[in-house]
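Note to self: keep these together.
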Amino acid sequence: MEKGELRRRNTRIATGALTVVASMVGLSFAFVPFYDAFCRALGLDGTTQIASTNTTVATDTAVTVRLDANVDKSLPWDFYPAVDSVTLNIGETSTIQYVARNTADVPTTGTATFNVTPEKTGLYFNKIDCFCFQEQTLQPGEAVDMAVSFFVDPAIIENHTTNEVRTITLSYTFFRSLEDMMQEESAQASLAAPIN
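Structure:
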């Protein structure tokens, strides 16, 4: 086998392997919206609800919402809540801030997953506006405040399995976006490809 033919064959094999890996990553991300819709419809797995406005009447019963923030190791960001917790009356709208900072020397894009615990409260935790509804792109060194507006539906008090809950933890985890990961894999593949 000639040297040039061997090089082309190795390039095809490497390209094929990268295509398989990228396809597997793509499929894993493609199933996320289906799983999210299923959980949201049933209030499973701590999945919160989305509301366009709060039409409920606030009660005299207070609930404390603890704020949690996590970042997957693939995303070079610092991410944390501006406060550890907020106490509000059930039915009252609250807006809180998280802070994100890109520690990389290149722009990076992240997408946030979220849930609440106890998981049974997901059916009553309503987000009106959230940074988690869209991917977030940060420039090198950029830091931004990211807002979340939410309320806890007073129906939580009427459900015998949730009427004693007075503390809810709202948790976010930021992951690197699929597009960012694929661009990085493509750049690494082109660096690894032999030069003809």
